[in-house]
Each structure stands twice: as structure tokens, then as C-alpha cells.
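<given_protein>
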Amino acid sequence: MVVDATYFGLRKENSAWCVVVFRDQKKKENLWWKFSDYETKLVYLEGKEYLEELGYKILSVTGDGFGGIKQAFSGIPYQMCQTHMKRLVIRGTTHHPKLEAGQVLLALIKTLHKTDKETFRRRFIHYHLKYTSFLNQKTINHETGLMDYTHRELRKASLSLTVFIPHLFTYEKDRSVPNTSNSLEGHFSHIKDIIGIHRGLSKPLKEKVLSSILLASSIAPNKKKLDEIL
């Protein structure tokens, strides 16, 4: 099962809200969803308990790095989405890092989709041994006057990989487990295209349209169907 949330509205203006979706990737079927102001562990736990009460047995869950997902599905095999992991690291290295430590980490994360657990883990240990002292360097932050990590973002990227590496290759034990949540992201993309056509919709109407699309597991209802919904 793949789980994720997609947001609507503007976070900077505090008008954002989201829909959390549980999807069966093989059947391309949306199993459960809920509208919320933001993602929380309790929302994911609610969906999990709802499906289990219906008799579903959740064999695995693939999601992004939101901590509430792993907590809500404690005891169930968890696969960290490899695409999200790559994005997290690149956020710290950038696509064109100037520092050697950034260049090496970028090169490493680009191999994630085409390597195995032991090879990737061994390479990351070598990276860690070579660059930890460099990443832990501190200098004076001229804005605060306090000591701070010199390469803060790059260090965060390395630490995020340390945290998630135990969950990056869960799929190796069971090839039916998706190693990314790309299928759900693609579904969200189509849904947003549909919602974008009707930019003036109020939140209640958007929720009504979203519910209809998610209920049908449809990514492209025709104009007649949209007119019926609206």
C-alpha cells in the first residue's frame, strides 16, 4: 500500500489544507482518504484502523519521510520512498554542488534506484568516515553571533540519509512492495489538473469534486461527469 498527502491552498497564507490518501498500487484503487488541515500521525492511524476493521491486512506501507507514517504503521514493513529520499538529499547538496563532500553525496544518491542495500550501505559508510569531520565543522553565524555548522544543509542531507537508510531497501525482501510512491504522486498530479480547471471553487466544492474522483479512482472524468459533480 502507498500512502501520501497532497496540499491545496497556500501554506504561507495559512490557507493550506490537504487530503491524505491510502492507495493500492497494484489495483490502482484508492482505499481510504480524509481531508485535514495538515498531515498528522493520528490521521494515518485513523485510516489504518478503518481498513483493519473492514478486514484488510496491511502487509507493507510505502511513504515519504513524514515521521507520523512510520509511527502509525509501527510493526508493519515500511519502505521509504526512494524518490523522496533523493529529493531530501539534493535539497542539501543542490544539483550543482561546489564542495567535494556535496559532489560525492550527490553522486551516491543518484545510484539509489540502481543498487542494492549492502552496496549502498557500504558506500555510505565510506562517505561517512571520510567526511564526518568536515560536515561537523562550525563557524560563527554572523546573524546570531553563535557557533553554527558551517555546512548546515549538506550536513542535514547526510543525517537524513543516516535516519532513513534502514528503510530504503525494504522492497528487497518482498518485490511486491513498491519502492516509491510515484504512482500516488502521479494520481495527485492528474487530480490537481482537474481541480485547476475550476480555480474558483470553494473548499467545500473542491472536497466534493475530490471525493468523487477518489471514489471512482478516476484520474480524468469527462466534462459531463464534472458538470454532474458541480
Remarks:
- Strands lie at 2-8, 17-24, 29-36, 61-63, 78-80, 138-140, 147-149.
- The mean pLDDT is 89.
